Amino acid sequence: MEISEPNPVAVRTENACRHYQMGEALVRAVDGISIDIRAGEFVALLGASGSGKSSLLNLVAGLDRPSSGAVIVHGTDLAALSRDQLAKYRLHTVGMVFQSFNLIPSMSLLENVELPMRFAEVDRRHRSALARRSLERVGLSGRLSHRPMELSGGEQQRASLARALINRPQLLLADEPTGNLDSRTGTEIMELIHTLNRSLGMTVLMVTHEQSLAEKYAGRMLHLADGKLVNDVPTDRVSNISSGPVRAPWGETQ
Amino acid sequence: MKFYDVADLAVRNLRESVFRNSLTTIGISVGVASLVAMLSLGIGLQQLASRRLQKSGLFDTVVASSRRDLRNFREQREEGPAPAESPSLDEPSRRKIEKIPGVVEVYPDIRFATEVRFDDKPHLTMVAGIPFSARNNNDAFDGMQGSFFSSDASPEVILQKSFAEELLGIIPKPGTDNTNIAALAKSLLGKELTLRYAERTPSPSSAGSNDGAAYSVVSRQRALKIVGLTDLDPDSMRGTTKARVFLPLNFAQDLHVMQSNSRDTSASDSPSYTSLSVRVENPNQVPEVEDAIKKMGFNAFSLIDATRSMRQFFAVLDGFLAIFGSLALAVASIGIVNTLVMAILERRREIGIMKALGASDADVRGLFFAEAGAMGLVGGAVGVALGWAIGRLINFGTNIYLERQHFPPAQIWSVPLWLVLSAIAFSIVVSLLSGLYPASRAARLDPVQALRYE
């Protein structure tokens, strides 16, 4: 196998800080982290709770702004974006999956998956079909009109994955995606994310505190403690960078 | 987000907490209803009053008179030609006035004091000619006993109630007004009375010549049939010269009565009139018509100032009614603010999710705005219906009261289309204003905070 050119940098943080005042104390949630993540990498953020991994993820997600330093995604400094531009960035560039799934309880699965397309002003006639296909690909074709509460945790997380990917983002951010799942369904979800990473070349940044999961699926582990990067190690698992096309569960090939 | 999606999501959200949102919407409805009820009564009263006044002929009539006639309603100080040089108010002038925009009809003012005999007893009174159009335009003939003149030239007469009493020798007790007009009518309608008058005829020597000042006065009498009796005063504008006996105008004109203030230089085919009544289509046009007549060199007189103060009165009344009506709507708008702020607290997480998925501030703001607007729309529509019903109820109650007091029923309530539309629009605007604060608060919600707590 020949050595290919390294992929371009997808996410770069330059001395990113997120400090906030909590009463008298200054909390340094993220304290000067500089990392480069290349397109197509599967990176796990590890650390004890309070180590700043979720805060860093929020910075990359454009949900929060750094107090200082820069967060650059595909060449764009997020700090320079207006609130509107940041919303557009979240809409088109990032897909997010949460520990608690965060599906809207009053909507059916189909409507939940359709929701980001409403914000993206996708033509109404195409939405339903797109959402349906997306849910079929995560194996939920029989659950389209169910409400989230009628489903198991694993099914909800699949639905939320389908929702995260509906606007075809380049970056998947997952905040403890298996945290609320038993180990078997957790593994299913991880397999799904892993396939996405490999088949679509999608860059994945995942927060987890389970080292074993990270070692098994991620290509690289970033250890955080007290808001600082303490360790940056590649796992022995070969990431998808040079691997050939793999058939994704949704049938699209890279 | 597109409008459809904003509306769709807003309706979904409203349905999610349907009970609370219904209560808020009912609050708006009550506010709009009170506003509509108040204003519908104000407008109804105004319409009633202006209908009455318009039909009274007080406000849509301009009286034109020649400056040559030195005896007039009031001393004229307007600039213009001196009396001797001013044109005479003759038939060509009448046609010219008729062509002024807004003028409906111009008719000569025929009135004279004369003797009327009934039952062989003489009675002195003022007699006036009434144009045939007064049947529809003068309120006094609306509820009259008997009927209006059968034609514009028939030898018929309508009496004012007080003169009818005089003919029958009834003297009403001072302070009471209880003479039964129906009983008066029973004993007078269809009977005859005799009009004695002085006819002015051109002297044979000067017949046909325009400058002939020679005429003779011949005493005449005509029998007239009493066809109607009016309770109200058709001639209320005239003050001391107001008539109590009315003839069809054409008939009266053909009598060629020597009028008391007549100073015609000629009794020829083209007589000059003492004064002309100019009826105007709309009271608003009275000042213009008045000016136009003055420019022609005549005196003009109207009571338009009185309508101005009446309109002023109703503007103030409507203003007060609107303020009181709006108070309830103001209270309701606080309800909207409260409901939406509650909704933000409840849907905090949902807002956070939507933002994380890429909803912009404008999307979130639009959503809350749409919810406020929808409540305003529904509340406004229901409120208009409710206010309409309340106005009707008040009208109904008032009419029962009027009937007990032996007054004719009146429409004191009116909901014109513009009131319906502007009430709904006002309700939406107030709701949107109420949604301003909650919507911007929701839009500014920090998604990280919103998503933090499980």
How would you characterize this protein structure?
The complex is a heterodimer of chains A (254) and B (454). Chain A has 254 residues and is α/β, with parallel strands linked by helices. Chain A has a domain at 100-168. Chain A has helices spanning 53-61, 83-92, 109-119, 124-137, 153-165, 183-200, 211-217; strands at 9-22, 25-38, 42-46, 68-73, 76-77, 94-97, 171-175, 203-207, 220-225, 228-234. In chain A, strands 6-7-8-3-9-10 form a six-stranded mixed beta sheet, sandwiched between helices. Chain A starts with 8 loop residues before the first strand and ends in a 20-residue tail after the last strand. Chain B is of the alpha+beta class and 454 residues long. Chain B folds into two domains: 3-54 and 310-452, no CATH class; 62-303, no CATH class. Chain B has helices at residues 3-16, 18-55, 91-98, 134-137, 161-168, 181-188, 249-254, 286-295, 304-346, 348-356, 361-404, 417-443, 447-452, and strands at 61-66, 103-108, 111-118, 121-130, 145-146, 156-160, 192-202, 215-230, 245-248, 275-280, 298-301. In chain B, the strands form two sheets. A six-stranded mixed barrel of chain B has the order 3-4-9-6-8-7. In chain B, strands 2-10-1-11 form a four-stranded antiparallel beta sheet, covered by helices on one side. In chain B, strand 3 and strand 4 (121-130) form a beta hairpin. In chain B, helix 9 (304-346) crosses helix 10. Chain B is elongated and about 115 Å long. The relative contact order of chain B is 0.20. The model of chain B is unreliable at 261-269 (pLDDT under 50). The A-B interface holds A 58, 61, 63-64, 83-84, 87-88, 90-92, 94, 96, 98, 100, 102, 104, 106-107, 115-116, 118-121, 124, 163, 167 and B 1-2, 4-5, 9, 12, 16, 349-350, 353-363, 447-448, 451, 454.
Arithmetic mean pLDDT of chain B? 81
pLDDT under 50 segments of chain A (min length 5)? 238-254
Class by helix and strand content of chain A? Answer: alpha/beta
Percentage of residues assigned to helices of chain B? 40-55%
Radius of gyration of chain B: 33 Å
Q: Report the mean per-residue pLDDT of chain A as an integer.
A: 88
